[in-house]
From TrEMBL, chain A:
Residues 24-126 form the TolB N-terminal domain. GO terms for cellular component: periplasmic space. Part of the Tol-Pal system, which plays a role in outer membrane invagination during cell division and is important for maintaining outer membrane integrity. InterPro entries: 6-blade_b-propeller_TolB-like, Tol-Pal_TolB, TolB_N, WD40. The gene is tolB. One of its GO terms (biological process) is protein import. This is Tol-Pal system protein TolB. Its main location: periplasm. Keywords: Cell cycle, Cell division, Periplasm, Signal. It is found in: Periplasm. The Tol-Pal system is composed of five core proteins: the inner membrane proteins TolA, TolQ and TolR, the periplasmic protein TolB and the outer membrane protein Pal. They form a network linking the inner and outer membranes and the peptidoglycan layer.
UniProtKB/TrEMBL annotation, chain B:
Residues 27-74 are annotated as: Disordered. Residues 56-66 have a biased composition (Gly residues). This is Peptidoglycan-associated protein. It comes from Modicisalibacter xianhensis. The keyword Nucleotide-binding does not apply.
Amino acid sequence: MKRVVSIMVGLWLALYVSLANADLTIEITKGSDQAIPIAVVPFATQGQGALPEDIAQIVSDDLARSGQFSPLSRGSLIAQPNRSEDVHYRDWRAVDSNYLVVGQVTPQGDGYSVQFELMDIYGERRMIGEVVNVGRDQLRSAAHYVSDKVFEAITGIRGAFSTRIAYVTAQGAADNRRYALHVADADGHNSQQILSSQQPILSPAWSPDGNKLAYVSFESGRPAIYIQDLASSQRIQATSFEGINGAPAWSPDGRQLAMSLSKDGQPEIYIMDIASRSFRRLTNNSAIDTEPDWAPDGQSLVFTSDRSGGPQLYRYNLANGQAERITFTGSYNSRGRFSPDGETLFLIHRDDQGFHVAKKDLETDRMTILTDSRWDESPSVAPNGSMVIFATQQGNRGVLGVVSADGNASYRLPSAQGDVREPAWSPFMN
Amino acid sequence: MQFNSYAKSLVVAVSFAVMAGCTSTGGSQDGSMDGTGSAGAAGQGVTSGQASGTQLGQGQGYGQGQGQDSRIPDQRTIYFDYDRDTIRPEFESVLNSHAQYLRSNPNVSVILQGHADERGTREYNLGLGERRAQSVERYLTVQGVSPSQLEIVSYGEERPAVDGHSEQSYAQNRRVVFDY
Amino acid sequence: MIAGEAEAIANAKQAAQASNGFINLVRHAIEQAWILPASATNQLRAVVRIQLLPTGELVSARIIESSGDSVFDRSVLQAVERAAPFREIRELPLAAQSQFREFNLDFNPKDVRR
């Protein structure tokens, strides 16, 4: 009887707790998608005078905008170390910070020397430390560089804070509108106007090396595709056929431009070899075929076509010349853009509420709407695939928005007057 | 609330002003437009953005150009339904007057500017604007106009006649403009 | 005799329930503290061995089976550190307390996007 009891006791225990002393294992199958707490201490300045830029603030803002980090507010910084030797890890555990960034700036020659270090608070170790030397007016660049390094060390994903964006502005009344093409840092700062016109400008596209922009300009009264070198401002007119000359998209090797031309009646997808200026026509039907984008491996293109009635995305296989419809959810799917790994398409999807940025997993076919704004256009993916910039409406104005690839974080880029639209995220610049 | 009165004024304005090539002042509510006084002209400035042909007499009917083969017909804009490129019956007489003018003046050429409303993606809308202009081109050539007199330029949604996100604005932006 | 057995069974039941409660508590605390890396996939798995003091303070947490991904491994160690201490261990029956002085955590995300 006693044995029966102890067996039963044993069974009860065994049911819930593994009796083998060393082998109790608890499975953890879920995590939280909260942002990673990180403390960025204001960088110390050696020498006199305040710096023109607050590096720690720029780093903090970069990391926060990614949606993956939640930087501690300055008020909750428990100490102000500037070197890893001065860090007391226990202090930072007390404020629940997983990571800590410290650094200092020293004037050097005609510029600055920026030193920074990243610490893993719970691992109690320094993860990275580096010194960067920059010119007098390059403190913002230095800060974005720090953000890139911190982001990569923590997430394993290359940071894209040092990249740039191109976009188009439109200002003035309908009968007296001024269009301009700009290039700016990814956070919207340091904008430069590179073209201005009284006629529409659209569809800027970065060359894979980040040195050139292709775009559509109506400046001659008709649409034409131009390729402009950003450093020299020199440009060539790539196409000026009768009809639509639109939607330029660079091949991954930068030698070809896919585009939409209606010179033969309807908008069709063509590939132009830039050096030889020869053209190859990919599509041939009575529908609108436009908005091509190359898969990162260069083997296929996605494009918009309304051959089935409404706009849907199709994938053209360059090896066999076949185009296959790939979107079936909803009556409006357009302007597909590949993620850098080629596994996901970002696109504009219309539902009852309006036009949203959405993504489609090419393996599972799952479509996920990323934004709740109603007038989204022109998605363009950051080169690390973590964020998507797009045009949307705020009040009655066109503004640029950015949403994380998982849809969990979003922000609007500040803008001056007028409408801002047609954003294009640059490739990595270094 | 504000939207309601805005929409209402647009409905009133549109209902008897659109045909005359005039527009409401609704567009002036858009933050990107400077001032309110220019909005009336804005609706007419759609022909090219250049100086030509923008000062139409308000209130003139679209049939008035007929019979005056030496004069460019006054009504130079026709409108389309959402996502359609079919010529609405009420605009056939406008097209007929242009056809007659172009036949009588074979040395004159015209750019047919195709436009779309702002909904949807920009490059796709270039295609929609072009379809509308092609629809007008087909109508004119059937009427005996030489194709060499006609050129199509689609602006898609890039050059709206009026700003705003109402169906009334969209209706005025889905159009083909004769730019002589 | 009979009463003693009934009591033993009742005690065992109670101990098992308490243990179960503690497991749920630990699991919940760690799930809350585990910030899944953006790059996490359901292919990744890491096992962490943890040692606790009788008070529930963390003595050590170490990877005994690596995911092969340093970002993932770091994230699970941070989760344990953030979730500790587990003071509720003191409320367990004595026999169960010893069970939980050392145990494994098997991190294997099931519900990630890919």
